[in-house]
Amino acid sequence: MTTPERSEPSTVAGEREMLDGWLEYHRETLALKCSGLDGKQLREASVTPSELSLLGLVRHMAEVERGWFRNVLADEQAPPIYYSDDDPDGDFHPGEDDTWDEAYATWRTEIAHARELAAPHGLDDLGAGPRRERTTGEPYNLRWIYTHMIEEYARHNGHADLIRERIDGATGD
Question: pTM for the whole thing?
Answer without folding.
Answer: 0.93
